[in-house]
Design goal:
By secondary structure, this protein is of the alpha+beta class. It has a domain at 61-165: Tetrahydropterin Synthase, Chain A (2-Layer Sandwich), CATH 3.30.479. Helices cover 42% and strands 19% of the residues. The protein has six helices and four strands, in the order ααβββααααβ. Strands 1, 2, 3 and 4 form a four-stranded antiparallel beta sheet that branches. Strand 2 and strand 3 form a beta hairpin. The N and C termini lie far apart (86 Å).
């Protein structure tokens, strides 16, 4: 209170807006610069996305000619799921997409591929198969296991032609 009995209003602090905006702008510029440095600048990994997709042994080949692809048909697998009393079965058949030069090698390894698929699918729970995203997840897991068995760059994709639980 002042001598006249009036209440003094607190002094408004001017100038807080400028440092605050300056801090936000500097943070955004610093974040963008850090992102650039890690993804494309001096701190970027040696192999970039362009280099990875240029490898003819990898990728799904949207830019490839139809003659650059061969398929290895796999036998149909009938796999018992759950307890013997429930008598639920998974009927699974698929094809492997391979480069033509690896067709014979992958065909010779078909028994190992079937063994890996059979072993993997036997441990899948019935409840897991009912999820909407289960086929995509299972397909990715099976493809990774197949690529380990056949060697890097030989099998490009796993094409599921039949996936039936009865």
């Amino acid at each position: 209170m002042s001598e006249d009995g009036e209440i003094e209003e607190p002094k408004k602090k001017k100038g807080l807006l400028v440092p605050l905006l300056l801090g936000v702008i500097l943070a955004a510029v610093g974040g963008g610069g850090g992102f650039w440095a890690v993804t494309q600048g001096p701190l970027a990994p040696e192999s970039t996305v362009e280099e990875q997709t240029d490898d003819p042994g990898e990728g799904h080949g949207a830019d490839m000619a139809p003659t650059d692809v061969a398929f290895v048909e796999l036998e149909t697998l009938v796999i018992s799921l759950g307890a013997a009393e429930s008598s639920r079965n998974l009927i699974f058949s698929a094809s492997l997409e391979v480069r033509p030069e690896y067709l014979e090698e992958v065909t010779e390894l078909t028994p190992r591929v079937l063994d890996v698929l059979n072993s993997y699918l036997r441990v899948i729970a019935i409840s897991e198969l009912s999820e909407p995203t289960s086929l995509a997840r299972l397909r990715a897991q099976m493809l990774r296991r197949i690529q380990v068995v056949t060697g890097t760059g030989r099998v490009r994709d796993l094409l599921v032609t039949q996936f039936l639980v009865n």
